[in-house]
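Support request from a user on the community tier.

User writes: "When I paste my structure tokens into the form, the page sometimes reloads and wipes my input. The last time it worked, I copied everything first. Here is what I submitted, just in case something in the input itself triggers the reload:"
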């Protein structure tokens, strides 16, 4: 096992923030801060000279801000970047833009003093940077923006005559979803549920971003009586679990995190499996950890179909690996063929229901 510490470059215009971040990251036996930069111009030069494994990047900086620095960095020298800024807060457009441009993850500085707030997020910061260090950098290049497509009309069905696709993703998920969702067709007139690990408050912006890219209708779950409709994508609200009830509605839950995350795909999938049975297609995409494996098992036991992303396209081959090694995956597909696999499964499920 490679025990060499991962090298981190801290980019922040605040002397105090640089000191606090350095103290926290250097306290981990797995990380070593090898340098700091005071703005984007300084950062681009330091990345070339220091070749860090991970960069933590502020957004609001003089001369060259974090977003433009990230944009240039991903073109000239793709690097694992965790955005850490007071501008990344609930609903901030900058957070989604950073993820579009190739940032591995985002983290908000609290609105209180940086010293108290960042110290309170000590473990979260270390975990995000360590996770970023294990990301496949080849899969971080920014995606081109697809033109929006005409919205498909929502189709009224009896509630038990359409397939349901539940998709789980974590680190690398926003990029994967921006590739996948626009490519999904209306084969079988399926309804979709997305469970993406995001900081609280980010899901609404992510849903709006995806909605602009696809003919499907994408919306954030916002009530305790959510109903699934063919041609619609229900995005689990960040900071809440999405739980299905016997009457086939879904509600928001503030029960404790599972696997350290809320929403958890396992909670959504396990609650949905006995309600919808063989109508469900469970999908696990890129991400750290094991969330989704238990959910796929529950779906498979009810006669549903299970799909996982192939290692070759995962930003982090964690969640799919656990699911595949658990023996609960029917189909393995790279992200560029994932829509094809889902569409085929949805069409097959619809035919089986009609038989």
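"...and here is what came back when it finally went through:"
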């Amino acid at each position: 096992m490679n025990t060499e510490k991962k090298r981190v470059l801290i980019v922040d215009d605040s002397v105090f923030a640089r000191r606090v971040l350095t103290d926290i990251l250097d306290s981990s036996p797995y990380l070593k801060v090898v340098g700091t930069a005071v703005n984007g111009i300084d950062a681009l030069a330091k990345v070339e000279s220091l070749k860090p494994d991970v960069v933590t990047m502020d957004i609001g900086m003089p001369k060259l801000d974090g977003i433009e620095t990230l944009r240039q960095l991903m073109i000239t020298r793709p690097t694992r970047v965790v955005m850490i800024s007071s501008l990344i807060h609930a609903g901030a457009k900058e957070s989604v833009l950073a993820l579009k441009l190739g940032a591995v993850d985002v983290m908000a500085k609290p609105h209180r003093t940086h010293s108290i707030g960042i110290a309170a997020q000590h473990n979260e910061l270390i975990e995000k940077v360590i996770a970023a260090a294990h990301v496949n950098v080849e899969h971080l290049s920014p995606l081109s923006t697809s033109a929006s497509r005409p919205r498909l009309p929502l189709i009224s069905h009896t509630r038990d005559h359409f397939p349901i696709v539940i998709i789980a993703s974590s680190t690398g998920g926003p990029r994967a979803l921006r590739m996948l969702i626009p490519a999904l067709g209306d084969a079988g007139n399926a309804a979709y549920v997305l469970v993406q690990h995001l900081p609280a408050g980010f899901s609404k912006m992510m849903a709006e971003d995806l909605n602009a890219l696809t003919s499907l209708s994408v919306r954030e779950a916002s009530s305790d009586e959510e109903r699934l409709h063919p041609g619609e994508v229900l995005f689990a609200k960040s900071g809440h679990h999405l739980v299905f009830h016997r009457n086939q509605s879904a509600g928001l839950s503030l029960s404790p995190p599972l696997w350290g995350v809320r929403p958890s795909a396992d909670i959504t999938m396990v609650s949905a499996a006995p309600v919808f049975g063989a109508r469900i297609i469970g999908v696990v995409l890129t991400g750290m950890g094991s969330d989704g494996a238990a959910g796929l098992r529950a779906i498979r036991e009810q006669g549903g179909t299970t799909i996982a992303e192939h290692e070759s396209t995962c930003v982090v081959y964690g969640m799919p690996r656990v699911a595949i090694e658990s023996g609960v995956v029917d189909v393995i597909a790279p992200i560029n063929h994932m829509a094809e696999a889902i569409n085929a499964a949805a069409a097959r499920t619809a035919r089986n229901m009609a038989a």
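Agent notes: The reload is a front-end session timeout and is unrelated to the input. The first strand starts at residue 6 and ends at 11. The CA atoms of residues 293 and 326 lie 7 Å apart. Escalated to web team.
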